[in-house]
Write a structure and sequence with these properties.
heterodimer, A: mainly beta, 7-stranded mixed beta sheet, about 0% helix, globular, B: mainly beta
Chain lengths: ~110, ~120
């Protein structure tokens, strides 16, 4: 099973600042990584796939990078609606499909 | 656009079977290339993939998370454009929000809104 590890668990950021979230895979997953945003009481929403491709209607302030085992999600200028929990998910080796434990982005 | 909606009991007794249904609208559950999944989220925790069913050409195939495989059954009702989850011998550890989601062999999109199932006597 590929273990996905996200850091930090919680990130405190002021509105307008940049947020950088990390996701590490226990073995290489090439670029087979997706990022999701989850707000309280809502289902996760797809943000990024293929490690760096934004999903439909996702603003350009969200960007993904990385390959192999190290990945980053960057939110260039945080807006109020961006405070949420973010999950990474690998789809390179399964079963099982696995998610990271999440990073909560909170208002500083 | 495709939308998914979970339904089922919100309370299940220990040792019983949890049963949920996901209704798909805006698209066919028999569409080539789409897999229909169940994912759960324990309270305040991360996401756990349960399994999927793939139905095309009148044939369905399933794949389950090895950690749950012995207790899980996913099935499909094409006449209602629905798929279902059954999880047997539940305990308090199965208390979670259960989501259904479409998977294209890569990422999950879209998701249902989720339904909380509590296991308690």
């Amino acid at each position: 099973e590929i273990v996905m590890t996200q850091s930090p668990a919680t990130l405190s950021v002021s509105p307008g600042e940049r947020a950088t979230l990390s996701c590490r895979a226990s073995q290489s997953i090439t670029s087979n990584l997706a990022w999701y945003q989850q707000k309280p009481g809502q289902a996760p929403r797809l943000l990024i796939y293929g490690a760096s491709t934004r999903a439909t209607a996702i603003p350009a302030r969200f960007s993904g990078s990385g390959s192999g085992t190290e990945f980053t999600l960057t939110i260039s200028s945080l807006q109020s609606g961006d405070f949420a929990v973010y999950y990474c998910q690998q789809y390179n080796n399964w079963p099982p499909l696995t998610f990271g434990g999440g990073t909560k982005v909170e208002i500083k | 656009q495709v939308q998914l909606q979970e339904s089922g009991p919100g309370l299940v007794k220990p040792s019983q079977t949890l049963s949920l249904t996901c209704t798909v609208s805006g698209g066919s559950i028999s569409s080539d290339g789409y897999y229909w999944n169940w994912i759960r989220q324990h309270p305040g925790k991360g996401l756990e993939w349960i399994g999927y069913i793939y139905y095309t050409g009148n044939t369905g195939s399933t794949y389950y998370n090895p950690s749950l495989k012995s207790r899980v059954t996913i099935s499909v009702d094409t006449s209602k454009n629905q798929f279902s989850l059954k999880l047997s011998s539940v305990t308090a550890a199965d208390t979670a929000v259960y989501y259904c989601a479409r998977w294209d062999y890569k990422w999950f999109d879209p998701w249902g809104q989720g339904t909380l199932v509590t296991v308690s006597s």
